[in-house]
């Protein structure tokens, strides 16, 4: 049986976008709703897929096009290709997801010189007829025959000059007719083929061109970037024309049911009279606002408002609408749920709740952690004077201001003297790392969201705008140019990594009101709380009410702990004690390493105890009532010592200059050499260090116990937990646990305090032998950073600046596994460990303390695995709260 490749708009609804594409499905939905939609039919994605596999238009499709055309002719009462009563149609591409690179719409298909003549007579408007003809030839030439835009512009230009007018619309009917004929000649020359005469050939060629455009380079690129499968294919919509260019009471426009930029209520849009198709967005003439339109066309405008409300009530969301007015009659040509900014997303969601259209669960679903994160970054104050010079890809969010420099060494040198710089490069490479670290922000003219600059900047949390193609960077002349503008080294620019905007000069930066709210300095109920703050507050509260995952923070200082708590953290999932021995306290570790015997070493360690204890006191106080998981010292000792290469160079110079080398310097050099490891991440660190120098861990335990008792005495409620890093085998855990328990008991000296001891699961071996570890651990915390490194054999610090960007570009990896959990690989290990732990004890406590704890996709994965908590950096806590709530509603 023949496959049905075509459906009239009267079939289907918005749920059928797989088959009919987004545009087609929404057209069908509007027909179902009884809205005035010009009749037409949709060629399915099935037909496109068949074309893409065979390379030819299926024969059945040709037949079905004829049948469908005949039906359409009956409905409209006009005939395709018939000069006396012509039916004209548009050919519109429409895939399930709208994407750049798909074929543009061809309007007025069916028109010929004879048809145009007849249209001139029947409408009494000769110019309208030949403008329609000219538009068809222009579009068919550029879009279907690939005639370059420049050639069209050149020919048009000659006519404009001759007639001394500015835009094509002002040409006379006869000039328009001649222009069309010249365009045909150009097309014939360009394609080296006679221009097809028959409308049916125009139609089928346009349809085929839509199919082909599915595989255009831009579409392929976009699909890869957005992870849209490449085999979906596109639908094609054939729709009878309505003419906004027919008369003074005709026109075309776009409308939004609410403001998509701010979320404000009230319709919002543009209208252009005597215009067709995309004229309204092409900037040929100044458009009217809908308010202006209501003055010119009050009746049509009222009807438009009514239909907009109908559409919004029906879709229960912001709608983006295309319409055309033909001699005072309103037609709707397209609708879809409108794209919106982060601010608008939160505001519109809560408005719709208040209007009784959606539930709080739905409101939560319609916002996202990424949007919330966007709202939290510092922003440029755009009420100030601004000079936007270019727009690139928003690669890493934030607002950065600085003088531009063109090489990394210079960026580093200037930053060292306290200057703020923006590193500008064509693209960056691993050699630029020092400059990237030193710069406030990074601006490149090439590369996309997965370029080296973008990946590394995101990893560092640094603002970046990439792929700013309109600027050309001259790294020799130390300047970049945009058009005629030359910007030289030392000039100040402001770059917005959230929008991709590049401004010349310094723009003031303001803290986002959402951040002030989240940090507790602005109450949602306050008078000066902006609507978006109120909206975020409501949605976040709802997320908190329903979510199952607890959200903790990774924090190492009392200040961070306090901040995390304000941001909504329900405890600390990872307190990295090594951070307490950096800076000035480095010399303690140095002395531990240099100690000549154990008792000397123990003496130094004893000196460290009060420092550590004081830190714990602050953190436990800040987190009173909430668990604080303290991880025992993890990194290799040499991380606290000077770097071997630098030291070697210094020693060599000293020797050459015959200057004296102190015994201490000698000792340090020897120690650094002794401790030097080829693969420190796989060397003496974590639990291994604790086994080699037990006194270190014992001291940490004593400090934590004493701090807890002190805090308890002061009336707080400390809930300390101890966590052992990098465990791989049960025996390590058992050995250490006994030592630690003994130390706890000794230090408590009869006092009462609970101190669970858990282990990190961050080696693959630990994950797959979790059953055995469960015997000796009160909880597990997945250290997904190390687990990712070890599963992939990727050293994070190295791969992100070397080959990872290339891998992402080539799509050898779908995303950076350090940003979002690799669910198939690393995720499987987490799942295995979860299964074993929960089989051992049904309520075995499981958490995540890697950076994935703040990543939306990963959070949904952890929720679905039924883990107890995620822990992330304080700044990500609100995002994790929101996404944990979303995970709950999206799942159920
Ligand atoms: P896009 O997907 O790029 O928005 P569209 O298919 O929506 O492309 O069409 C481009 C323009 O042509 C829009 O302004 C649309 O409203 C207009 N248009 C499409 N079909 C018709 C038609 N049958 N009659 C009048 N205008 C049309
Ligand atoms: Mg378009
Ligand atoms: Mg459109």
From TrEMBL:
The answer to keyword Nucleotide-binding applying to this record is yes
* Matching InterPro entries: ATP_grasp_subdomain_1, PEP-util_enz_mobile_dom, PEP_util_AS, PEP_util_C, Phosphohistidine_dom_sf, PPDK_AMP/ATP-bd, Pyruvate_phosphate_dikinase, Pyrv/PenolPyrv_kinase-like_dom
Q: Which reaction does it catalyse?
A: pyruvate + phosphate + ATP = phosphoenolpyruvate + AMP + diphosphate + H(+)
Q: Which PROSITE patterns match?
A: PEP_ENZYMES_PHOS_SITE
Q: Which residues bind Mg(2+)?
A: 762, 786
Domain of life of the source = Bacteria
Q: Name one Pfam family in it.
A: PEP-utilizers
- What EC number(s) does the entry state? 2.7.9.1
One MF term in GO for this entry?
Answer: pyruvate, phosphate dikinase activity
Is the keyword Metal-binding in the record? yes
Which segments constitute the Pyruvate phosphate dikinase AMP/ATP-binding domain? 56-287, 302-350
List the SUPFAM superfamilies.
Answer: Glutathione synthetase ATP-binding domain-like (SSF56059), Phosphoenolpyruvate/pyruvate domain (SSF51621), Phosphohistidine domain (SSF52009)
Coiled coil residues, start to end: none
Which sites bind substrate? Answer: 576, 631, 762, 783-786
Q: Which cofactor does it need?
A: Mg(2+)
- Which residue intervals define the domain PEP-utilising enzyme C-terminal in the entry? 538-883
Q: Spell out the family assignment given in the record's similarity comment.
A: Belongs to the PEP-utilizing enzyme family.
Q: Which PANTHER family match?
A: PHOSPHOENOLPYRUVATE DIKINASE-RELATED (PTHR22931), PYRUVATE, PHOSPHATE DIKINASE 1, CHLOROPLASTIC (PTHR22931:SF9)
Q: What name goes with this protein?
A: Pyruvate, phosphate dikinase
